[in-house]
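Contributing new records

If you add data, match the layout below exactly. Sequence lines come first and carry their own label; structure lines follow with theirs. Keep one chain per record. Anything else will be rejected by the validation script.
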Amino acid sequence: MSEADAEVPVLIVGGGPVGLAARVLLERWGVRTLLVEKHRELSPFPRARLVNVRSMEIFRQLGLTAEIRAGAFAPEYGRIRFRDTLHDRDFASAAMVGINAPVPESPVIGAVTSQDRLEPTLLAAADAPVRFGVELIDLAEESESVVAFLVDHESGEETRVRARYVLAADGANSTVRQRLGIGTTGPGAMADFTTVVFDADLSRWCARQPAGVYFTAHGLFAPLYPEGGWAWFVSTPEDAVHADWSELVSHALGPGADVQADVLRVQHWVMNAFVAERFRHGRILLTGDAAHAIPIVGGLGMNAGIADVHNLCWKLAGVLHGWAGPDLLDTYETERHPVAHQTLRQAVANAQLMLQVQNRRRDQLQTSEAPPAQTELPWSDQYFAQLGLVLGVTYHSDAVVTDNSPPPEPPDSGTDYGPTAQPGHRMPHLWLTHDRSTLDAFGEWFTLLTPDPTHWEQPTTAPWPLHIETLPNEHLDLCVLRSHGALLIRPDGHIGARWPDHPPSDSTLHHALTTITRSAHL
């Protein structure tokens, strides 16, 4: 065993929203972490623009929703608008369902907010150490740990950190994934894009018709913060180094706009589309863009990464605290890998639909002297809800105890969501009291929901954290329970087991927890 300069249970590589969220989640579980980020500070670029309803549910559990919403846009910005130029009228528009207004399927509403607003909130939500300007350059696996080789870019000092586990959240160009030789599947690098952050007064065209995104023939425009600021997303021009970005932005705003853009920052980036062939290599686990790079259309990428670590962190905590077996970590890939592929397919479909809109409009402009004021969208009003993908994720793994009830009919697409209490699904949002959701009952513990807690007892000398909550009788039909039945909810809010009626034996609950946590041999 090689010597190390420091030891930590979990080393988190990457200080974007996924790595920062993992740091918060693991701290809530009492797991010590060290996070290293190769850049000297949090990213000043907006990047991800959407916190969807499922991510906001996770942030509600962490007590962060009020602060996130305080820096976010009002719900009416939860809309996309299509225009020939930014100062033209809409020729099409679509709501972001779950963002623009509450939905009955959740106790929260998502938000349009920039990643550079979200990251400081996540950074402040935990006390675990963070080392900016420190890059992982290599790593070596040992039987009981991983040794990470780090370099401090300011001092040039090289150090070694030994961790029980490494959580890689270091982006689409992940050093960790490349060092492990893990390949990817999917289209790969799709196109080169540039983000231009600028100031300009565009209120006369947008204040009365707010949106989170304006699609135009000259690129995509997005307001950055409620108090001001804009971003222009466009295909990178050939001579980007010598480009006059202020002039290019002004030209993209359209003839007659008469607006001078004050360019603040410019970032070139590649739109990637892939899924890693594996999410686990021994004691090293890939999350977020390191595991799956998702095209930006639909705002699915960052949110998928938040769901990754929400799935993973309780499992890491269980293994490190001794109430779960190491095999439980295998279920992370088993559960999240299919979701990554589904998310990638949805994002590619989103991009194709956006292209259809632009192509229809171009055809109208080219073939008609008086093009119609509106262009029919190639999707239903519910399309951008995507609630089937956001809330309807289903896990099939050894960390789920299946029952004999018939599974619900699968939806036709990621659009449709039907609440179900089938094992493997996210527990539906149901009101336990007038202001407390079933989702508010979950945390750093397993939860047993039952209409009659007297029939269910805590397993004696049990190592697992477990809370028992009363489920109102009005919800029994949806949950397919009778008066003495119960649902066992995992810490990530997914249903681990269901008993429609009374427990089959005194050891029923103990057996289910042992099965889910893979802890029979402990």
